[in-house]
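Forgive a beginner's question, but would it be possible to get a protein, spelled out as residues, together with the matching structure tokens, please?
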Amino acid sequence: MPAINMAGATVVPTNPSTGSAVTMDPFSGPKGSPFDAKIYPANVFMPTLAQRVADPTNYSTGALSTGLGLTPTERVPGGIPAPLYSAAIPASVNQPLDDYQPGLTLPAGTAAPDARLLAIGGGKSTANTVATPSVPAPYVAQPILNFGNGGSRDAGAGPAFTGFGMKVVTAAAPIANGAAIETGFTNRSGVTIPTGSSEFGSSTTASPAVT
């Protein structure tokens, strides 16, 4: 579905940041990303990243279903609003979530070695008609991205089009929307979160290129 900000401007700017927070797929969410719509030049089958051309329209097709329950504002659709959890909740409940990064953190709490959490087998293989039919060549690990409430959808001009991931972080003091919850992660929930509460903070560091 189009990665357009909920309740954002009717005429979507090149790099929207207004409206409610939206999650998106790194493979097709940032404008011009590898699997976005209408980014390939005519008569070129499977072009390289360098061959891609800009499209005058504002395509970005990687918005994710809210059924995933991963947004800065709630854990499940229609469920718990920001913050994700409170200091009043036992640590045994809080701890498994702390520092969790959607798309990057395995159930054991360790880092995913590749993009396997977003795509089967990491997303691709490389054809080899001489030695073997194909060899694994997964994409590098990719975070689920988010934007809105002041957070930009796109991180740069490309050709490695990227966005901004998120991580569960905890407020050491009341944190207003748009302020840092901890170093490198900003509150994009749209509300002030109280001391000891946690949410998905929006990263200020661009996601890795999809390679």
Notes: The two ends are 23 Å apart (CA to CA). Residues 74-82 have pLDDT under 50 and may be disordered. The longest strand covers residues 198-206. Strands lie at 22-24, 125-127, 134-136, 145-147, 164-170, 180-182, 185-186, 198-206.
